[in-house]
Design goal:
single chain, 350 residues, alpha/beta, Beta-clip-like, four-stranded mixed β-sheet, cell cycle, Chromodomain_CS, Chromo-like_dom_sf, nucleus, methyltransferase
């Protein structure tokens, strides 16, 4: 007869008991136990068939240790997932998944929904004027006032080329929440999954639903810092092989967004030299051209289960050219090898 060591919820380890299978009314836990055991043996045997010899009367300490660690990881990731969904202010749900290793939630990451200005930096989030349109799609609206075209079509898809700014209606506008020029400000509408990649790229993000081409997917948020501070942090990040700095260089080069400690789902989106997301600069309530919001739009139809990626060097310029990469001596840093796997891979992230 098979017996299982049971840890009773809310009770200390001293009250653990061995129970026969018929006493256990937890099919999901038993399935997870079986899967974890099988996965461990598969890793150890490196793809060889698992023989009856592997299913001994007692579990080897290494197997038992792995199963316990995997169970604790599962609990930790579920708690983190719950916390992310409590903190987010958008419609789309956030899921977390790790079927690759024993890595748990990041220890020094704080979820935010909008820019967090560093001490000494002021973000004025109040527009000075707004439109009085009854139909922003046909009238002279906020984009026209700024000298640009309305960014969206009637299907809420972006119709302007990369490098062109987006001006959405703001809090002073008289149009309602259903205005066709309010897209980025409504936040992520899609359910996304933060998942552990199997090829050494750490965490990544995949969509759980189909995303139409040219659709808004998410905003890139983080701590807003000066370019001087970004240069200092950049040296540290490059030595660790991580890249979270995003220069706000739409019109000037005064500020940078650092998503290393403070950020949203975009913190976990990986780089690709052949990405499916494109960067756009957005202005809503803050019309300071030194401080655009950064929005990521799909470049093509993205199907459920596909990983989301953007080009870390592309910024908001559109096509990547040699002019858009800074090769000045001051920014000559440790180069981070790219693992995107694209046919057009440039070899490095920076």
């Amino acid at each position: 007869m098979e017996y299982y060591l049971v840890k009773w919820k809310g009770w200390p380890d001293s009250t653990n008991t061995w129970e026969p299978l018929q006493n256990l009314k937890c099919p999901l836990l038993l399935q997870q136990f079986s899967n974890d055991k099988h996965n461990y043996l598969s890793q150890v045997n490196k793809g060889k068939a698992i023989t009856p010899k592997d299913n001994n009367k007692t579990l080897k300490p290494a197997i038992a240790e792995y199963i316990v660690k995997k169970a604790k990881q599962r609990i930790a990731l579920q708690r983190w997932q719950d916390e992310l969904n409590r903190r987010k202010n958008h419609k789309g749900m956030i899921f977390v998944e790790n079927t690759v290793d024993l890595e748990g939630p990041p220890s020094d990451f704080y979820y935010i929904n909008e820019y967090k200005p560093a001490p000494g930096i002021s973000l004025v989030n109040e527009a000075t004027f707004g439109c009085s349109c009854t139909d922003c799609f046909f009238e002279k609206c906020c984009p026209a006032e700024a000298g640009v075209l309305l960014a969206y079509n009637k299907n809420q898809q972006i119709k302007i080329p990369p490098g062109t700014p987006i001006y959405e209606c703001n809090s002073r506008c008289q149009c309602g929440p259903d205005c066709p020029n309010r897209i980025v400000q409504k936040g992520t509408q899609y359910s996304l999954c933060i998942f552990r990649t199997s090829n050494g790229r750490g965490w990544g993000v995949k969509t759980l639903v189909k995303i139409k081409r040219m659709s808004f997917v998410m905003e890139y948020v983080g701590e807003v810092i000066t370019s001087e501070e970004a240069e200092r942090r950049g040296q540290l990040y490059d030595n660790k092989g991580i890249t979270y700095l995003f220069d706000l260089d739409y019109e000037s080069d005064e500020f940078t967004v650092d998503a290393a400690r403070y950020g949203n789902v975009s913190h976990f989106v990986n780089h690709s030299c052949d990405p499916n997301l494109q960067v756009f600069n957005v202005f809503i309530d803050n019309l300071d051209t030194r401080l655009p919001r950064i929005a990521l739009f799909s470049t093509r139809t993205i199907y459920a289960g596909e990983e989301l990626t953007f080009d870390y060097q592309m910024k908001g310029y559109g096509d990547l050219s040699s002019d858009s990469v800074d090769h000045s001596p001051a920014k000559k840093r440790v180069r981070t090898v790219c693992k995107c796997g694209a046919v057009t891979c440039r070899g490095y992230l920076n």
